[in-house]
Write a structure and sequence with these properties.
It contains 14 helices and 14 strands. By secondary structure, the chain is of the alpha/beta class. α5 links the parallel β2 and β3. α2 packs antiparallel against α9.
Length: about 425
């Protein structure tokens, strides 16, 4: 029986050969470990890759988001107690970042098929916030599982209402979509260049992952970039001169060097993820398993805006498949329930585990039902988020899967049966 790990980090590291060892050795030999040339090099490269003007390396993805919000508070764009629209289904870091900045997370339900926010769900959430006497000043769009939110429509909505449009791009490195330009033309823009600012995580399991915690703020807002860089460095631009009440959140030289090695491979890795996802979508056929919405292929190589880069351009889509989520239910959309009334998702996970296939659940409990938030939000039901949490199961999908591993996953899912 072939064993299929969910995301074998050792295999990922080994795939880069000697490049990572050479990069880390270079940092050790330099004797410089914080705020040095490696960080400056990666910041410039990643900003260019995203098509934005600025990148500020920080400690992790949560701090990237909170620093964006705190930066806009220092700039007067946000005030304590302002509301920020967040998805009801997301990793809790999205909500934590809003709370850490002294703002109010206000949930919007996702689209069940794409699992991300829609314009309609944001509009409804803003209306509900008004009834709750919460002044919404920002929308924090999460590109969940690697799928982009409809940022063209959200940006038009945000601009019309003078709202900040922010990206939680922790799972969407390299994803792209067509966006309207100032002259009315269309251009291809990557995550990180779809709103006012974006927060990225480089946690080791991400499409672009470090060898530890790391993150970045990406924006074309020069004032924000300057404030974020100061806030992340004890509120200081000049040593021992502190303009803001800051914190310590910096991308260290080792992680920056690792990310610089991996960034040139990102488009090819994402293209491989898309190939595997296409096989899953075409070959998994089980009425108990609802597959995710297919990715949309957006551009050909000759159409890519130069700011977004051209490497592997024909692979760029609105979904980079950080996670391949399936949901337990009949093909017609009705729920499959086991005798105890729970989703048959857990039965599917046990079935796959018995065949040597490792899976994960993203995420078993939505934020409003977590102990950290339940007192404030638990009295309100968010049925779509709760349904997705009951039914979601993540299949193995990464650029280093063998064809035998891919086939094993497909065959195992197709063999799943349960009495409903």
């Amino acid at each position: 029986m072939i064993q299929v790990p969910y995301y074998p980090l050792k295999r990922v590291v080994e795939s880069y050969g000697q490049e990572l060892q050479q990069a880390t050795s270079r940092v050790v030999e330099s004797g410089w470990f914080i705020r040095g040339e490696e960080c400056r090099k990666f910041e410039a490269s990643f900003a260019e890759y995203c098509g934005s003007k600025f990148c500020v390396g920080v400690g992790n993805g949560l701090e990237a988001l909170s620093l964006i919000l705190k930066g806009y508070m220092e700039l007067g764009r946000l005030e304590p107690g302002d509301g920020v629209i967040v998805p009801s289904n997301t990793f809790i870091a999205t909500w934590l970042a809003v709370k850490a900045a002294g703002l109010v997370p206000f949930p919007a339900e996702p689209d069940e098929e794409s699992c991300v926010l829609t314009l309609g769900s944001v509009e409804r959430a803003v209306i509900h916030a008004q009834f709750s006497r919460i002044r919404v000043k920002a929308v924090l769009a999460v590109h969940l599982y690697g799928r982009l939110c409809p940022m063209d429509r959200l940006r038009a909505y945000a601009e019309d209402r003078h709202l900040l449009l922010l990206e939680d791009a922790a799972q969407a490195h390299g994803a792209s979509m067509n966006m309207p330009g100032a002259d009315g033309s269309q251009k291809v823009c990557r995550a990180g260049n779809l709103g006012d600012a974006a927060g990225f995580s480089f946690y080791p399991g991400k499409n672009l992952g470090a060898l530890g915690d790391a993150g970045a703020v990406v924006t074309s807002d020069e004032a924000l970039a300057r404030v974020v860089r100061m806030l992340a460095n004890y509120g200081s631009e000049q040593k021992y001169v502190h303009e803001y009440v800051g914190e310590n959140s910096r991308l260290d030289e080792m992680q920056a060097a690792v990310l610089s090695v991996k960034l040139p491979h990102l488009d090819a890795d994402n293209a491989r993820r898309n190939e595997i996802a296409k096989r899953y979508l075409a070959e998994i056929k089980n009425p108990l398993v609802r597959l995710p919405k297919p990715a949309v292929s957006l551009v050909d190589a000759q159409d890519v805006d130069s700011a977004a880069g051209s490497s592997a351009a024909n692979s760029l889509t609105n979904n980079v498949w950080h996670i391949f989520p399936v949901h337990c239910g009949f093909a017609d959309g009705s729920n499959c329930k086991t005798a105890d009334g729970s989703s048959c998702r857990d039965e599917l996970q046990k079935h796959l585990a018995s065949l040597g296939i490792e899976t994960l659940i993203h995420y078993p409990t939505p934020p409003h039902l977590q102990k950290a938030f339940v007192d404030q939000y638990g009295s309100v039901s968010y049925p779509k988020a709760e349904k997705l949490a009951r039914e979601e199961l993540s299949l193995p999908l990464h650029p280093f899967m063998s064809d035998d591993e891919i086939q094993s996953v497909i065959d195992a899912v197709n063999r799943f049966k349960v009495d409903c």
